[in-house]
Amino acid sequence: MQIVPTTFLALAVIVALAVKGPYRGLWLFLAVTPFGAAAAFNLPAAGGASIIMRDFCALALFVLLWMQKDAPARLLGSMRPFRPGFYLLLLVVFCTVAALFFPRLFVGQTEVFAIARVKNQSSIVSIPLRPTTGNLTQLFRIYIDAAAFFALATVFRQHPDGKVVVKGMAAATFVHVGLGILDVLSHDVGLPQLLDFLRTANYAMLTEVSMAGLKRMVGGFPEASAFGYYTLGLFGFWLHYWLRAGRSALAAWCLLLTAFVLVRSTSSSAYVAAMAFLVAYAGFAVARHLDRRINRRSAALTVGVAVTLWLAFLVLVAAYELVGPVSDFLNRALFDKLGTASGVERMSWNAQAWVNFTETWLMGAGLGSMRASNWLLACLGSIGLIGTALFAGFFASLGRAPAPAQLDPDRAAAIGGLKAGCFALLISAMLTAPTPDLGVFFFALAGLASGLSRGAVIESRRELHRGMRDDW
């Protein structure tokens, strides 16, 4: 195990979480999630793998919950049949089997694109399928994801307070935006190494890359695409919460800040995913209101957003045709992306992932055995039809999780916002995710949504029974 400067920061956060507990310490855990390039420690013996600080904190949350009274019974309550935790539990079991046995079962039967590390530099190479350290590291990350989900789902099922979640998301937003702005400003004033003490993971750090003369914003992450992916989750949450929670200055400011850094990230995948998310979100909103009257505020917002987007589109088209730097930037970020060497290479990964899926009898080559550039193909190629179906069950049950608004409309808005954030992250993963791992932040949002939803339902039933007794 290799100790790095951020190891001491990680230990300090763990101590603070132990003092506050998983419930009151939620804001601290979420505030750590933007540090995507900060390692708690590195593992040279495991191919140079890094345990990221937020992963370490997610494990700490689970351990802290496990140490509490009746922890096993409380955790089992988050795994009830046909709810999100049930499908996630089955998925973890299947991923374990897939990671440990599939590479041996199908050894040599298909070629895979796998990651290779040489002197902390990673590259994707084509090799015959065989067991690698990637199987263990990816399995460990799935365990971390599950730990984050079950810890937060259990805690907030028993304490379904939406305000605590909103404060935690605000803390994450301010830290994330602050790191992004500091990253750009430090470059502009000639101090590009200012944030290097936070970038201790064994990743390729693409922190000084420019696009059309504009420095790409990476903040606490190793590259702009990872920064954009995280930003999309925040943007999805605040968009829904701002629309549903009424007049909230905090939500308005957080939405504006996340929209700003999303645009400033210069991540083409984030741009495309954001457009797809906005279209899908608007479609769901319209479908939801087809059988009911739309209130005046929602109608005004819908018209205002539609007009603003149309005007912005006209301005963008005009700038693309008339302003050279704008056309250069858009060509580099969007229109010429698939024609680049990187785009062609990533398409070859996806094509090979489908071959892996078919050549392993639809079972997959094993978790961590291969890489793609599309989440769905990465799932099919590594955990096959069964694992992908379990993921689909998890998404469907999470999407159906109720958000009762009778007792606490603000909590209902928070539940919807968390699900919107997960949806935005999933859309982004469909474009670029190399493995089935959607990240700790995704599963933290999903755990909070599941816990708040179930806790709200239980609370509503208690109020109903109390009212019936009072009437009797």
From TrEMBL:
<feature type="transmembrane region" description="Helical">
    <location>
        <begin position="224"/>
        <end position="241"/>
    </location>
</feature>
<feature type="transmembrane region" description="Helical">
    <location>
        <begin position="375"/>
        <end position="399"/>
    </location>
</feature>
<feature type="transmembrane region" description="Helical">
    <location>
        <begin position="299"/>
        <end position="320"/>
    </location>
</feature>
<feature type="transmembrane region" description="Helical">
    <location>
        <begin position="270"/>
        <end position="287"/>
    </location>
</feature>
<keyword id="KW-0812">Transmembrane</keyword>
<feature type="transmembrane region" description="Helical">
    <location>
        <begin position="138"/>
        <end position="156"/>
    </location>
</feature>
<feature type="transmembrane region" description="Helical">
    <location>
        <begin position="42"/>
        <end position="66"/>
    </location>
</feature>
<feature type="transmembrane region" description="Helical">
    <location>
        <begin position="168"/>
        <end position="186"/>
    </location>
</feature>
<feature type="transmembrane region" description="Helical">
    <location>
        <begin position="411"/>
        <end position="432"/>
    </location>
</feature>
<feature type="transmembrane region" description="Helical">
    <location>
        <begin position="248"/>
        <end position="264"/>
    </location>
</feature>
<keyword id="KW-0472">Membrane</keyword>
<protein>
    <recommendedName>
        <fullName>O-antigen ligase like membrane protein</fullName>
    </recommendedName>
</protein>
<feature type="transmembrane region" description="Helical">
    <location>
        <begin position="86"/>
        <end position="107"/>
    </location>
</feature>
<keyword id="KW-1133">Transmembrane helix</keyword>
<feature type="transmembrane region" description="Helical">
    <location>
        <begin position="438"/>
        <end position="458"/>
    </location>
</feature>
